[in-house]
Amino acid sequence: MTAAEGGLGTAVSSDGGQVTVTISGEIDVSTGPCLKQALQAALDRRPGRIVVDFTRVEFCDCCGLGVLLGGRRQARRAGIDFQVTGVAAPTVVKLIRLFGLAEVLGVQRPQGGPA
């Protein structure tokens, strides 16, 4: 599944027991529903693990974090591991740190990125 809406691109792909949700662009109140649909598509596949790839995310506001937390909550209820990888945009890193969500979301930074 691939979608683009209002500056946000999403792609959902499967590899064995893992589903990867690749996100690109900006996540805000207007594009949050697109992210929510992509996460729901991943959850509907009932994988063992969901990885949300933020490598190409340029911006994420509190609405986007809320959508991620909602997806994580649904995944945990279903016994699915949930992890966010590739967080590189300085504003996204700052927001995740500000709210103390790195550990909660299982955030993994890109190789060679600042801690």
TrEMBL record:
Signal peptide: none annotated. InterPro entries: Anti-sigma_ant (IPR003658), MlaB-like_STAS (IPR058548), STAS_dom (IPR002645), STAS_dom_sf (IPR036513). Residues 8-115 form the STAS domain. It comes from the Bacteria. It holds the Pfam family STAS_2. Belongs to the anti-sigma-factor antagonist family. NCBIfam families: ant_ant_sig. This is Anti-sigma factor antagonist. It comes from Streptomyces humicola. The lineage of its organism: Bacteria, Bacillati, Actinomycetota, Actinomycetes, Kitasatosporales.
